[in-house]
Specification:
Blueprint: H1 5-26, H2 33-39, H3 54-78, H4 85-93, H5 96-99, H6 107-116, H7 123-137, H8 146-169, H9 173-188
Helix pairs in contact: 1-3, 3-4, 3-7, 8-9
Length: 191
């Protein structure tokens, strides 16, 4: 049976979405090509019909992860009253529900140390994804000038990423919530 080009594009996107979740849940080295292809209902051999390399799949899955979290945070910001969008983003990012689901969260909180050790050839592409993420979040950040908004973005997001990383290490939900709530309150009263 022959499929049209749209079928290949749909399958490609399914593989990328599945890989994006798996990479965040299991790490860069944990998301084996065979497991990703199995999740998509395909054989390992079909991988190269969609991707030139595992690095290409990784970069596309990171792009998907950044897009997913930016969409979620943008939605939270757009639903909030004027001037409070950044607070809605902080509350969304530092929520227990978000913390408990690494597979659908921010790739920085899930993969930060691994991305820092990524192959040098991949770093410029990873940096481009980070720049896109920042540009989507910048309009919601506190501050009047673009420089103030950038400073706020780096302070707020660096703090939130580290908080999620620490909270996810804690064994008890009550302990995680205490860390999340403490940092949430700190950020909400800092800008």
């Amino acid at each position: 049976m022959r499929y049209g080009p749209e079928h290949k594009a749909e399958i490609h996107q399914k593989i990328v979405k599945d890989a994006s979740r798996r990479v965040r849940a299991e790490g860069i080295t944990g998301a084996a090509v065979s497991a990703v292809m199995h999740d998509a209902g395909l054989t390992h051999g079909g991988f190269y019909k969609h991707f030139g390399s595992k690095d290409q799949l990784l970069l596309e899955s990171l792009s998907e992860a950044f897009k997913e979290i930016a969409d979620r945070l943008t939605h939270a910001g757009e639903q909030s009253p004027p001037g409070t969008a950044w607070k809605a983003i902080v509350k969304t990012y530092l929520s227990p529900e978000y913390c408990d689901h690494v597979e659908s969260g921010c790739p920085l909180a899930a993969l930060g140390p691994e991305l820092a050790r990524a192959d040098e050839a991949m770093k410029p592409q990873i940096f481009e994804e980070l720049k896109k993420y920042k540009s989507r979040m910048l309009p919601f950040m506190p501050g009047r000038r673009i420089a103030d908004k950038e400073r706020a973005f780096f302070c707020i997001f660096s703090t939130m990423v580290g908080t999620i990383e620490i909270a996810r290490m804690l064994p008890e939900p009550r302990m995680r919530e205490k860390v999340l709530a403490s940092v949430r309150e700190f950020l909400l009263h800092s800008f």
